[in-house]
Design a protein that fits this description.
Layout lengths: L2 H11 L24 H6 L7 H8 L4 H6 L6 H7 L2 H10 L14 H10 L17 E5 L5 E4 L13 E4 L5 E8 L7 H6 L3 E9 L6 E10 L5 E5 L4 E3 L8 E7 L8 E10 L10 E10 L5
Antiparallel strand pairs: 1-4, 2-3, 3-11, 4-10, 5-9, 5-11, 6-7, 6-8, 6-10
Length: 294
């Protein structure tokens, strides 16, 4: 081996020394993908705050971020996010109140999210979109029709302006609600079994007798009935008071397996008159209700 090659080999094998004035790069200075050192990351850990202060801060953080982000930061934050007081106070501030004060929720966080998500699962319940969303099962006589609510016979909710009206032979329509598509998954429905509140408003014509039919079925994945509410038909005589009435039912403790809700209503007149003298229906609703809010 030549002298030049021997010198190169000795240079490659030699350990590189550091001058005393230069600080060695240690574990505390390893750079992260974001350009911060591990030493810096230790300094940016969340400070320990009094519980009351942390809870007040969390009251202004979006609820989903509290559960999906803040809860994972450290043990203290997890304990505050999981606390009953945080979600009870959040319900109070946002106006989610118990309708039955004697029945407290077992889980205030669950109660909060159910309140926030609560809505009418029926499409076009007030006839504002013609018949969109409804499946017409029977369209007898002169068929279903949509009319305006009269000023003389307003509903308790005066924002309702239209209704569906039946004719002289049976008129029936329904909606099938897919709970998974509406955001209520199988595990939630099976384990929590939240109350399901169904409601319908109906009224006769004053100058003609009629009949009102109503049913709601809770169905499994194969659309087999698990539970149903099917009251007897309601009959009205001719020359009645024409007042709007509410049909309402709460499904509670119905067991696992509910995946669909089928809502059906309608009727006919009993005089067999041409035109639209049958039962009138509107402002229908199906809601998933928080526990204790019946």
């Amino acid at each position: 081996m030549s002298d030049a090659n021997q010198a190169l080999s000795r240079k490659r094998g030699r350990k590189v020394s550091h001058s005393p004035g230069k600080k060695r790069r240690g574990m505390g200075q390893v750079r992260s993908a974001h350009g911060f050192s591990a030493e810096t990351n230790f300094l940016t850990m969340p400070p320990t705050l009094p519980i009351a202060v942390l809870e007040e801060v969390f009251m202004n953080v979006p609820a989903r971020e509290l559960v999906c982000v803040c809860r994972l930061v450290c043990r203290q934050w997890k304990e505050v996010v999981d606390s009953t007081s945080l979600w009870r106070n959040r319900c109070r501030r946002e106006g989610y109140e118990l309708r039955n004060a004697s029945s407290l929720p077992k889980d205030w966080r669950q109660f909060y999210f159910l309140c926030k998500k609560r809505r009418n699962l029926l499409k076009n319940p007030r006839a504002e979109g013609q018949f969109s969303g409804w499946n017409i099962l029977e369209d007898g006589g002169d068929k279903w029709k949509i009319e305006d609510v009269s000023q003389e016979h307003l509903l308790p909710d005066e924002t309702v302006k239209k209704y569906f009206v039946t004719s002289y032979t049976s008129c029936m329509k329904c909606q099938l609600i897919d709970l998974v598509k509406e955001g209520y998954g199988p595990a939630f429905m099976d384990e929590v079994q939240p109350d399901i509140i169904v409601s319908d408003w109906y009224s006769p014509r004053w100058d003609c007798g009629c009949v009102y039919n109503f049913s709601v079925e809770l169905l499994n994945q194969k659309k087999k009935v698990i539970r149903e509410f099917h009251p007897d038909p309601v009959y009205f005589e001719q020359w009645n008071d024409m007042q709007w009435k509410q049909m309402k039912h709460v499904f509670h403790g119905y067991g696992p397996g509910v995946r669909f809700i089928r809502f059906t209503h309608g009727g006919k007149d009993t005089q067999f008159w041409a035109g639209w003298y049958g039962i009138r229906v509107t402002n229908s609703s199906v809601e998933i209700s928080p526990s204790g809010d019946r």
